[in-house]
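Section 5: illustrative case.
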């Protein structure tokens, strides 16, 4: 069996600790898993960096997440970089660092680190002020939009590469045009839209969750605005779900795990050294071990992780005869019904893929004429439309 390479790891620098209290945050509940929410200790950080450099190939990516990773402070990330330099000396490693932040109260010292060491920064902005502030609030219930936009502007002024993560709720799904225009106005070019589907304390789908129908409508509307810009030769944003679908139309393997044939190609490291199979599904049943006792590469290729990866193949019976199967392979496990394996957003993707098919086929035909290397199924075409 071919061993999976250690290419990507998500690091929960501060666990679920955060300086915002977003109503729809799926990770806040992880404070029930850990009683302590401290910053990762230096010995855990050093063990992690040492293992990663020893066990990875010539390149790998670290996604610093939380909670809110910026709460670890500038000194923590300078220490992390110094450890990469220490253990990577003479090994010719290419290391990519991404900080995924809510953008609230980023310190100037941390921004200096991000600029100096060429971090990519993912920043969470849901759109115009009223849409963003509806759920992205401080502990006292105040909106965070103004502070987040100031942080984004500071990143832009320092020429730090950014991409935008926008969560789509029941309300914002009906405001696709406002959201698209907002991001376009601010020249926010790299966009990832995430549908919100969470449960309340009673186990029912939370009121703020976007319905399958509304998520499908949202994607179709965003695609219309994007396609009109494409026809008009306007500057095009790179929109994750659009580029993933286009990649599938070319017959290429998916880059994003949501659309991959199997799960389990990356690891999640918690602040105390515990390692998990998936960011969305951190829990006792997906705990692979701890870096104090186990090697990262062994946990990635463990039977437990392999079995987890194959869980995606346990699809709803309708999937077997679905013409869109190779586009999603049943979708993310997070959104599947525990009993039927039916994906909550199944009809959303069918709606979008049917709606966009003819236009994607025209674009794909043009692309293939000028890119014969498309036969390489591992090509990542992210940003092709930029």
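Designed sequence:
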């Amino acid at each position: 069996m071919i061993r999976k390479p250690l290419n990507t790891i998500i690091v929960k620098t501060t666990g679920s600790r955060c300086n915002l209290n977003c109503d729809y945050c799926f990770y806040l509940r992880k404070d029930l898993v850990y009683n302590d929410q401290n910053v990762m200790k230096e010995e855990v950080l050093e063990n992690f960096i040492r293992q990663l450099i020893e066990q990875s190939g010539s390149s790998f990516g670290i996604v610093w997440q939380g909670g809110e990773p910026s709460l670890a402070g500038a000194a923590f990330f300078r220490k992390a970089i110094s450890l990469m330099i220490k253990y990577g000396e003479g090994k010719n490693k290419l290391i990519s660092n991404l900080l995924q932040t809510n953008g609230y109260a980023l310190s100037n010292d941390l921004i200096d680190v991000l600029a100096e060491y060429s971090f990519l920064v993912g920043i969470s902005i849901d759109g115009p002020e009223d849409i963003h502030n509806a759920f992205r609030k401080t502990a006292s219930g105040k909106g965070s939009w103004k502070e987040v936009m100031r942080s984004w502007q500071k990143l832009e002024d320092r020429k730090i590469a950014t991409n935008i993560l926008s969560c789509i709720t029941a309300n914002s799904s009906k405001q696709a045009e406002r959201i698209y225009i907002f991001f376009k106005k601010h020249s926010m070019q790299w966009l990832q839209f995430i549908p919100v589907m969470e449960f309340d304390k009673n186990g029912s789908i939370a009121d703020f969750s976007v319905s399958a129908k509304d998520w499908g409508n949202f994607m179709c509307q965003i695609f219309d605005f994007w396609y009109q810009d494409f026809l008009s030769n306007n500057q095009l944003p790179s929109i994750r779900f659009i580029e993933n679908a286009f990649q599938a139309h070319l017959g290429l393997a998916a880059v994003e795990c949501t659309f991959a044939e199997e799960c389990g190609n990356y690891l999640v490291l918690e602040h105390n050294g515990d390692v998990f199979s998936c960011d969305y599904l951190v829990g006792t049943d997906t705990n692979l071990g701890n870096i104090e006792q186990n090697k990262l590469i062994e946990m990635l290729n463990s039977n437990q992780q392999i079995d987890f990866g194959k869980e995606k193949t346990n699809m709803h019976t309708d999937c077997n005869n679905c013409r869109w199967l190779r586009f999603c392979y049943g979708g993310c496990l997070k959104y599947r019904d525990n009993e039927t394996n039916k994906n909550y957003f199944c009809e959303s993707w069918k709606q979008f893929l049917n709606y966009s098919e003819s236009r994607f086929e025209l674009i794909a035909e043009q692309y293939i004429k000028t890119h014969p290397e498309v036969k390489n199924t591992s090509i990542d075409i992210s940003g092709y439309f930029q």
